[in-house]
Structure formats: structure tokens, C-alpha cells
Design brief:
single chain, 751 residues, alpha+beta, 6-stranded antiparallel β-sheet, 32 helices, elongated
């Protein structure tokens, strides 16, 4: 793998660590990079190389330097990849299509772990300008942050041997949303529900500060099961840190679907997507293209109700379009007049500030219309609201119905309350039975590793679990609840053993089974979502973990936040995930709530509470509240040292974190004291050559140097050399690193 390949494959990690280093004074950057990468030589080398290149230029890296782009891509003529070509762990099986900046292929997994068909998007050769490369890499970054059932997922990415980057995406077998609706002759309500799936996906992107900018029917495919998928974020804009303006001439838009501000070259906001959704909704409702005959780009299109009767060249006749909606032109016009004219018209207003202020507002009005409720876009009117009420209750006789409704409501409340109590009682009984059955199965499974019972002296826990996996698949077809519980338990166990891919397969099966058995808002589904997220977090796939934690939190708190240790643990996981995603304010909020919830529950003496405090201190550091972070670290240490069951590594790392905070505050003496305490705790039980001891030793040496204690720093460096030479083989990078550190120290002080 070339240096450029490594850069693209690990750009998210590189960017995160580089950003952290660049926040510090220049003389502290290398030490922080070494501290953050004790076991990752490749990542350390990439970041240090970029820091060296930037030493003579700007201190910030806002985008991939053009010189690296030029090194990473080969000039040449467009060349298609032949079937059978291997791309990472995928093999090309066919050609799908070619766009303005990339070629798309169909591929399948080649490593045999499991069968999976995907789409691979490869930047076309000859297009490696900074602008197009930047767009392509931006698409990769954007897709990695988006997780939603109606957004085509990014599965993988990397670079070809010639340096061209590629994306591996979910393969969506479908047709454009308008063609799907016409082929199945969907009536207006079903078209609106299909549109809402797309609107929810766009709003999910907006929550990640991403504007699509190119929403059109060909970028929304619907598969054979009727599920809509939003594709192609190739020209999407990040609302933070992207001040570019799209020019019409550079073709980074679809003119017929472009909003007025795009055509004018004005700044892009979420209002652009609202406008394009409005165009697509009108096309779904009446079958007219975005630009009507006789209108210019930028002019408001015809109202849906008028468009239902409109005749245009190269467009099916009104009767044919209406028939595809199971109606006639007159009835279609009547159906669209009023609310739907207003909804589409509001979305298509010329000025972004006059449209719906979010996609959520647009979708909410569509849902109100489907439910027969007044829409927000309609001017306030008693007559309008009364008509809506009458439409929902056509047989209302005010006085009689009022009494009837009151009686029915009272009875319904009693019935629903009784049913809820029965469900809770039954759920508790089922959970107890599942727990007993699960425990019995797992005990029997682990006893199978007993050589007396199994006849095999070398059965490992992993092998026993693999046997259990086969038994679950073959023997529990008639016990789906037990099967779901065991799949979850074994998935979590495999994850803890470092078998993340096996864990992922088991947990996804548990998730699908739990959804079928208990429903999508059940506690059982929430438990599997947490296990899946934990598995992603162990692989440092924080973008994938975050939405799963959030969905589990929504389920567990749907009746209000509970004073519950499981919710506190979930908040802790969400906070640490947000911290890794470089969202410090969100991390602080979540970590604070986790600590507060444990205090409310009276859980202030457990290890989980100490872990929550440590996460809170780390989050406080992230927002530069260093005095508060120091106070919390001191509280962590007080509780650790007052505990009967002290974890020596956790104890030492708490001192290490306190020292780093004091060093950031400029208290070098206090930092030295804390680093010495951490070092003394670990050097005897773990040895001088242990990676954690080396990390803390290096931190202490850096502080000693800052305090002018050069001889002590050199003596500590000599101990590191002796430790790594005893612990690691000759030629290991840790040995070289130890010599390099002491050499740099001698050089800096002219020795």
C-alpha cells in the first residue's frame, strides 16, 4: 500500500488527530501524537509527516493539500475496470454506469466472510483536479456520517493501486421514485407516504449539517419492496466549514431541478433541499416535469391542481397521467386543490426565507393533510378548521356526540390502562423465563468445553461458542424468543473476544428477530441496538455507533427519562462517542446527564459511577473548562483510592489524565507530581517496557524537560531504552522510538 493509499484509507483518523495536535503549541504537538498512538505506528507516521510538511506553512489544514492530491492521482485517459478486478476486499462483477466525475461498478465481497453485493464508485482518471477530488472525498466524508434507512449506506472506501479513490456503497436495485409510483398506479395518499420517506432521509442529513443540493427522481430509487433510498451526495454541501458557492457553469447542479438561489449563485441553505423536494412532490402528484412549457428557470411552476389538466409536448396526456393515479383529470385537480397546492407552493417560493424553514415542517404539513388536520401553511381561519373537523367527523351532531365521546374516552382509558398492566405483567414473565432458559443454555454450552464431557482436551471458549451458534440455528426454530436472547448474548460475547465481524452477524440477526417478536419500540430491541453500537465502538466506528445509541435512548426514555442505571450507562456511551466524533458540547451534556442520573439513583460508589466521572472530566477538557476537569479528576482519584477493589491501570491512567490537565493549565510542578504517581503505580507490576508504562514515562520526561530537569529526563529515557530492549525484539519500532526520543532530547540541548 502506498503512502497516498494509507492517507485516504485512514483520513478520518488522521484528520482527527492532526486537528488535536494543531490546537497546541508547536513544541507540544509531536508529544501529543506519540501519546495518542502508542500502538499504531502507521497512523503516527502519517500525522507526523503532515506536521513536518506544515511546519513551513499554515498551522491549520482545512483541506487535503494540493501537493498530496497531485501525488495521489495518476494522469491518464479514462479506463474501465474489467470484471474480476479486485478492489480491496471486493471483486468487480459488472459495469453500472458513468457520471460526470465517477464510474459506478457492481461488485461482490471476495473474502468469503459472507455474501454481499455492492456498488463501487471510482473517480474517473483524467478528472483529478483539486475541485473534483475534493468533491469526491467530501462525498465520502459526508456518507460516512449519514446513517438512515432511506439513505444508501457507505460500506467501505479506499484507493486503487493507481491512487484513484473509491467508495463502496449499498447496492440499491430500484427505479426512480416517479417511475415506481406510475408503474404501480399509486393513488395520491400512497405517493405522499412514499414522499415522506424521502423527506425523513433529507431531514436526517440536515441534522448532520449536510445539504444534498441535487434531489431529483433519478437520485431517489425505490426497490421492489417499496422502500425509498436517497442516493448521490456528490455535490452535497456541509453547512459548517464550506463557504463555496456553486456556479452554473461548473455543472455541479442539475439545472432543471436547481433552486433559484443555485441559479443565481447565492449561498446554499437547507431551503435548497426544501425547494427540490417541492419540485419532486409536484412531479409525483401530477406527472409534469420540473420546468413547465412557457416558464423560465427561476419562475414558479404551475400549481398541482392546474397541472392536472395541463397538456404539454413530450408529456403523457392528462387522462393518462390521472389514470396512473387511479382517477380522472377533474377528480385529480379537485383532490390537489387547497392543501396540496399550498404545500407545494410554499416549498417552491422564490426566496428561501419564505419557504418552509425545514424539511420537518414540510413533512409535518403533508402528514397533517393525510390525517385530515389543518396544515400550518394555510392562513388561520375558523371556517377552514371547521371544514377540516367536519371532514374528519362527517356525522358529528355537536351535543349528542360530545356526550358519547366523553363516555367512550373514559371507557377507553380504563381498557387501555388494564391492557397496559397486562402487557407489562406478561413482558416481565417472559423476560424472567428467557433469562432462565438463556442461562441454562449458556451453562450447558460452556460445560461442553469440559474434556471429560466433550472428549476433547483443547476446546476453547470461542470453539464452544461456535458450536452454540450452530445449535441455535439448528435446534431453536420453534423457540424464537430464546433464540433472539441467545443470539444477542453470544454476539456480545464474541464482541468482547475481539471477533467483531462474527458479533455483527449475530447481533443483526438478533435485531431482526426482536423487531418481529416485540416491535420496533420494545426494550428488547433497545438492548440489541446497544450491543450493536458497543460492537461498532470497539472498532472505533463511532459514526455507525452514534445513531444506534440514540435510537436505543429514544426507546428507553419514551415515557420520560427513567432513573435507571441502564439509561445512565447509555448516556455514558453516547457521551464518549460524541467526544470521539469531535462534538465536545454534546459530549459534555451527555456525560453530565449520565453522572447526574447515577447520583439521583444513589449509585455513587460503583465503578460505573467512577467511569462516568472520568468521562465527564474528559468532556470538560474538550470544552477547555480545565479547572473543572481538574476538580473532577481529583474526585475520581479520591473514589478510586477509597475503594476496596482498585484497578491499578485505571488508577494510573486517572493520574495521567490529571497530569495532562495540569500541564494544560500551566501547572508543570503539579503535572510532574501526578505523572510520577502514575509511573510509580505501573512500573513494577507491568515493567518498564509495557506500552502504558512507556506512554506515561514519555509524558513525565516531557514535563521534566519543560521544568529544566534535563538530567532526570535523560535518565528516564535510558530506563525506557532498557525496558523496551528487554520487552521487545531487536528491530521492533518501540526500540527505535525509545532511542529516537532520547536522541531528540540530546539534540535539543546541544549534547
Amino acid at each position: 500500500m502506498t503512502r497516498a493509499d494509507e492517507l485516504w484509507d485512514r483520513w478520518d483518523e488522521v484528520d482527527r488527530l492532526l486537528d488535536e495536535a494543531l490546537e497546541l503549541e508547536p513544541d507540544r504537538r509531536v508529544a501529543v501524537v506519540l501519546e495518542r498512538t502508542p500502538d499504531d505506528e502507521a497512523l503516527r507516521a502519517l500525522v507526523l509527516r503532515l506536521l513536518e510538511r506544515m511546519a513551513s506553512g499554515d498551522d491549520r489544514l482545512s483541506k487535503v493539500p494540493s501537493r498530496l492530491v497531485e501525488q495521489a492521482f495518476d494522469k491518464g485517459t479514462p479506463t474501465d475496470l474489467a470484471a474480476g478486478t479486485e478492489v480491496g476486499r471486493w471483486v468487480i462483477t459488472g459495469f453500472r454506469g458513468r457520471g460526470g466525475m465517477a464510474t459506478v461498478y457492481e461488485a461482490e465481497r471476495s473474502d468469503g466472510v459472507y455474501q454481499q453485493r455492492v456498488a463501487i464508485k471510482v473517480l474517473r482518471r483524467g478528472l483529478d483536479t483539486d475541485d473534483l477530488v475534493g468533491r469526491f472525498l467530501t462525498e465520502r466524508q459526508i456518507l460516512s456520517s449519514l446513517t438512515h434507512p432511506s439513505i444508501a449506506r457507505l460500506l467501505d472506501g479506499g484507493s486503487l493501486p493507481d491512487g484513484r479513490p473509491y467508495l463502496v456503497m449499498e447496492l440499491v436495485e430500484g427505479v426512480p421514485i416517479t417511475a415506481y409510483a406510475d408503474e404501480r398506479r399509486l393513488p395520491v395518499p400512497e405517493r405522499l407516504r412514499l414522499f415522506l420517506e424521502v423527506a425523513d432521509a433529507v431531514q436526517a442529513a440536515h441534522r448532520q449539517l449536510v445539504v444534498h443540493r441535487d434531489i431529483k427522481p433519478t437520485n431517489v430509487l425505490v426497490d421492489g419492496e417499496g422502500r425509498a433510498k436517497l442516493l448521490d451526495f456528490g455535490i452535497a454541501k456541509l453547512l459548517e466549514g464550506d463557504e463555496t458557492v456553486t456556479e452554473v457553469g461548473d455543472r455541479a447542479l442539475t439545472p432543471d431541478y436547481a433552486s433559484p438561489e443555485q441559479l443565481r449563485g447565492d449561498p446554499i441553505t437547507t431551503g435548497t433541499d426544501v425547494y427540490q423536494l417541492g419540485l419532486m412532490l409536484r412531479e409525483l402528484l401530477v406527472g409534469l416535469p420540473p420546468r413547465d412549457d412557457g416558464t423560465e428557470r427561476g419562475d414558479p411552476p404551475t400549481k398541482p391542481s392546474r397541472g392536472a389538466r395541463k397538456t404539454m409536448p413530450n408529456v403523457p396526456e392528462p387522462a393518462e397521467r390521472a389514470e396512473r393515479r387511479r382517477t380522472t383529470p377533474d377528480r385529480l385537480a379537485s383532490r390537489l386543490a387547497g392543501d396540496l397546492d399550498l404545500i407545494v407552493g410554499t416549498a417552491l417560493r422564490q426566496a428561501p426565507e419564505d419557504r418552509y424553514q425545514s424539511v420537518d415542517e414540510l413533512a409535518a404539513d403533508v402528514r397533517r393533510h393525510l390525517d385530515g388536520l389543518p396544515i400550518a401553511a394555510h392562513p388561520e381561519s375558523f371556517v377552514y378548521r371547521a371544514r377540516k373537523f367536519a371532514g374528519r367527523h362527517p356525522l358529528v351532531i355537536p351535543s349528542a356526540v360530545a356526550a358519547l365521546v366523553a363516555t367512550v374516552a373514559f371507557v377507553s382509558v380504563i381498557v387501555l390502562q388494564n391492557r397496559r398492566l397486562e402487557r407489562e405483567r406478561d413482558a416481565a414473565a417472559r423476560a424472567s423465563a428467557r433469562a432462565v432458559a438463556t442461562q441454562s443454555f449458556l451453562v450447558e454450552l460452556l460445560r461442553s468445553s469440559d474434556p471429560v464431557r466433550s472428549g476433547d482436551r483443547d476446546v476453547t471458549v470461542v470453539e464452544a461458542l461456535q458450536r452454540g451458534r450452530e445449535r441455535v440455528a439448528n435446534e431453536l426454530g420453534d423457540q424464537p424468543e430464546l433464540r433472539a436472547a441467545l443470539l444477542e448474548a453470544m454476539g456480545a460475547t464474541f464482541s468482547g473476544l475481539g471477533r467483531q465481524e462474527t458479533a455483527d452477524t449475530l447481533l443483526r440477526s438478533a435485531y431482526e428477530l426482536a423487531r418481529e417478536l416485540y416491535g420496533v419500540t420494545s426494550d428488547e430491541v433497545a438492548g440489541v441496538l446497544v450491543a450493536l453500537a458497543d460492537n461498532f465502538r470497539q472498532q472505533r466506528l463511532f459514526v455507525e455507533a452514534a445513531p444506534l445509541y440514540e435510537r436505543a435512548y429514544e426507546i428507553r426514555t419514551r415515557g420520560g427519562t427513567q432513573v435507571d442505571s441502564s439509561v445512565a450507562t447509555l448516556l455514558y456511551a453516547m457521551g464518549t462517542t460524541r467526544r470521539e466524533l469531535r462534538q465536545p458540547d454534546s459530549a459534555l451534556t451527555l456525560s453530565s446527564r449520565a453522572v447526574e442520573l447515577r447520583r439521583q439513583a444513589g449509585d455513587t460508589s460503583s465503578r460505573a459511577y467512577v467511569s462516568a466521572l472520568s468521562a465527564l472530566a474528559f468532556a470538560l477538557r474538550g470544552v477547555q473548562r480545565l479547572d473543572s476537569a481538574e476538580a473532577v479528576y481529583l474526585e475520581v482519584l479520591r473514589r478510586i483510592e477509597g475503594s476496596q477493589q482498585t484497578n491499578v491501570v485505571g488508577h494510573a491512567l486517572a493520574y495521567n489524565n490529571l497530569a495532562f490537565t495540569r500541564r494544560s493549565l500551566g501547572n508543570q510542578q503539579g503535572a510532574e507530581e501526578a505523572y510520577r504517581r502514575a509511573y510509580d503505580l505501573l512500573r513494577e507490576p507491568l515493567g518498564e517496557g509495557h506500552p502504558t508504562v512507556l506512554l506515561i514515562s514519555n509524558n513525565l520526561a516531557g514535563t521534566l524537560e519543560l521544568r529544566g530537569k534535563i538530567d532526570e529526563a535523560l535518565a528516564l529515557g535510558q530506563l525506557r531504552i532498557e525496558g523496551v530492549e528487554h520487552e521487545w525484539p531487536n528491530g521492533h519500532w518501540r526500540v527505535g522510538s525509545a532511542y529516537h526520543s532520547i536522541g531528540r532530547l540530546l539534540s535539543r540541548h546541544d549534547r
